[in-house]
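fwd from M.: "can u put these together and see what the complex looks like"

so here's what she sent:
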Amino acid sequence: MAPLGNEKNQLYLGLFIHSVKLGELQYLHDTAVCVDKSGKIVAVEQQYDQKKAEETLYPKLGWKTDDVTVTIAKEGQFFFPGFIDTHIHAPQYPNVGIFGKSTLLDWLNTYTFPMEASLSSLPKARRVYTRCIQRTLAYGTTTAAYYATIHVPSTNLLADLCLSLGQRAFVGRVCMDNLGPDYYLDESASQSLAATRATIDHIRSIDADFDLISPILTPRFAPACSVDAMAQLGALHKETNLPIQTHIAENVDELKLVRDMFPDSKNYADVYDRFGLLGKRTILAHAIHLSDEEVDLVASRGSKVSHCPCSNSALTSGVARVRWLLDKGVGVGLGTDVSGGYSPSVLDAARQAALVSNHLAMPSRTGEKQIDAEAEDDRERVRLSVEEVLHLATRGGAEVVCLGEKIGGFEVGKEWDAQLIGLGLVPDEDDGTESKQDEDQDQEHDTGNVDIFGWERWEDRVAKWVFNGDDRNVKKVWVRGRLVHQRR
Amino acid sequence: MAPLGNEKNQLYLGLFIHSVKLGELQYLHDTAVCVDKSGKIVAVEQQYDQKKAEETLYPKLGWKTDDVTVTIAKEGQFFFPGFIDTHIHAPQYPNVGIFGKSTLLDWLNTYTFPMEASLSSLPKARRVYTRCIQRTLAYGTTTAAYYATIHVPSTNLLADLCLSLGQRAFVGRVCMDNLGPDYYLDESASQSLAATRATIDHIRSIDADFDLISPILTPRFAPACSVDAMAQLGALHKETNLPIQTHIAENVDELKLVRDMFPDSKNYADVYDRFGLLGKRTILAHAIHLSDEEVDLVASRGSKVSHCPCSNSALTSGVARVRWLLDKGVGVGLGTDVSGGYSPSVLDAARQAALVSNHLAMPSRTGEKQIDAEAEDDRERVRLSVEEVLHLATRGGAEVVCLGEKIGGFEVGKEWDAQLIGLGLVPDEDDGTESKQDEDQDQEHDTGNVDIFGWERWEDRVAKWVFNGDDRNVKKVWVRGRLVHQRR
């Protein structure tokens, strides 16, 4: 079991960057952030160095110098809130990048169900889940909303591993008692619910208040659930107020399936709504093909959307209209959707979120631009900036998982879920000597692919990070004040 | 100056993967490839190990064992042809990832021209070009078609650096005597041509037969060139048969500009054609918004297209219809288009080429699929597979730069431009001990983000590489038999 607190208080010093609202990054230079033993931020003070913090902040906080560890972001480094992956299938991690030319429904049968079914094996589940958690932590994911499989023991193992490796997580046993393959299907609605309760009980036994690990009700998606299962899950939600995660409107063939299977429902969103599955704590993955009527329903219920651009492009699903969702008042975060998504990195998801938003703004293929100025403005508005996608990756994601009060930014009262980012500095003019070259190679090895020449503004550095950064730029990662990953 | 040959003959052993035709990768297991001192492949034999090669191949080739160096692809590694970047602006390398919400024409003025102008400084040019070449070599780019700047000395320096660092390159002094900013513009057509000739002369002085480094005529794009400049460049091409590179139909505002500036031309392609700039050796970057008439003209002239998906998405330019170009008989390769493109990696370009092709196949946003079966088939056809984008990155690119006889695959007579790729093996079940964890971290550090669990088929491994690979997977890189990059 993970320690519930940290041994010492912590002082963080240097540059802190976070999103204060959609489209606005705040750069806190020369700043001190104090984190107490429970992992909570208790002070954020600008224009502070270590000496000033020791002299003025420690007395106020009742801290003694020898009871504080100090972490400094070096020149060129910065602290950033941990990423929040609002949609990821841990058991599919071994399949990242493998999807061929499939689309959703054949992809499920060809790649996904066989892999998930094989995780009934606990040794295999341990290997896959350990790797998945280590990788996502290495990419700076401090919170993940995980789908597991239908198997209770390996789902419980995923929860155990998240707790011991220190990743904040929502862990959902997948409910699917309909339309799945014979070899991978819940026996009945009641068995599906009993198994769900078994995982809830297990998580309660390892983290009584769901402080770090929370169960999440997980009807796979409407076509995979009987009406009984959905009705019972809705009732369970009403009973427990546990969060819910599912998929919606990802693929046009799926839409047709839902229309055929639920002829009495007005639309896809209505299917979930009539079973009480559309609430403030519901995370809807994809939401590509929602109608105006549906988005209004989703907004009125306060449900949230996980935008998964890597997956949506890979499976040719479509492009979610993020600006439209935001305009309608729907909260949006980012999901890797491993392994419909090919990358376990939320930074990759952020990058692709910016790129696919540009695709929504692209002119028609004819080369003619026959739209009026207003339409042109509208088209420009759909594009997401670097600042906006980083908002979705942090504060937006926090809202989606209903932890907006706890994580997503650097404010007093929030918990210290953070990453230390370092970018590579290109050496000054190469003098061509061999030893210098070795040095460069060392540096390259350590700092990844972001090359900072030194003349860039900070906003340019952040853009370079978003477009060429990878796990090599993630030097350290903390969850609730606990160091959960560091690069050598 | 680079050595013209290698000290020893070379034997390569193990798995070789290359594209034999569009959509078909060949897997040559347990194969021996012999490369002579000139860097040419002189034997490719399947079912060979070192002993058999020594016993049967060496005598045939007249090789002695102590005059041969042996390189073995270890279990899980493979040799792959070097990547060919058919469109990259070396001076823009420091701007990768920095483009904000600009599109082509404002991006040029805001980011690009100021950066290019600053490379009149030779120390700055040396720093930028050295880094650019090192980075692209580290990503496995063995051949690059570079745009430099308008400055002769720094353009010549780029050629020198490519030669000394060992990257096969086309180096183009940029011709632009029209519509550029005052601070960055050729004085006149004749000055533009004289400067072009100066760079050609310089390259002839360092690589007389253009074996490794070739000049390339580089009218920036039609709006940046006077008709005099284009006419003189066309004449110079006729005189020298040197290759040509330029841009075409990237952006809808650019199309309008071209129509306004060249009212006598039938279309954009025709502008180049009437100045003799559309020939077999012409590389046209982007080609997003070509008409049917234009593509027929391009095809009939035998000109080629450099597809730059990272750039096209980043600058909201559009999506080139690669399948359509190929169907029309136009040769297509990939370009990073640094820094319209945010990544100097051709593997990234390949990944995005697959993804953006899916965008062409996406259903309309309404969620309705009201197209008939034939239209559905057509839509499916536009999607590019992993095998196809790797073809574009290697053999396709070789055709685009008119080196199809020399590079792009592993056949006798071709030159050894290759990369050794290694993917990461996930350890067996983690026993949780600390030492084991350290070991994993070592491995992770070395092998990047591609996780191979061991059960994957080779085609799945290649897909994983395309979607999650980076420079960490590129263990060694050779150009014409010379080792030009290796990771520690």
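replying to her w this: Chain A touches chain B through 76 residues (CB under 8 Å).
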